Amino acid sequence: NASLLESELFGHVKGAFTGAYRHHMGRFEAAHGGDLFLDEMGEMPLASQAKLLRVLETKHFERVGDHTPIRTDVRIITATNRDLSEQVSQGIFRKDLYFRISVLPIHLPPLRERKEDIPLLVDAFIKQLAEKTGKKISALSPDVMAVFMEHPWPGNVRELKSALEYAFVIAESGLIERHH
Q: Which residues are CB-neighbours of 7 under 8 A, at least 6 positions away?
């Protein structure tokens, strides 16, 4: 929903739309002087793309329902799993915005193409989950690690993390085994 996205990015004033019972600070305002990460850029509606481009070019935005410009100094970091250049050629992503956000593109291959990262990611996620849950789970058993290394991970790192979160619900301590 473009209106919800714009309210989230730029904020809104009380009464700007049904349900706007109070002033809401947007992400651009909150990130002033810092960085703003925008995930799933390929999903952004064209109307919102135009507004985002205007903010990037002018360094000003307006809250939804207001006409007072607010200055912003924010570095934008974007991510997508879509081919934005293809979306530009299809007319569903603005060419000018594409060039504006493609200053320093970094291609991160899918997890299935960088399996050497799996043990490092597993270790990091297990440490995070152990701290979060208080469980004394230390690692995957060797046979589970072998399964993880062979799995194609169509959901990439999110799927890997989700699998470990599930195992943490089932396992109590020690190693994560196959039945977890």
A: 16, 17, 20, 24, 26, 64
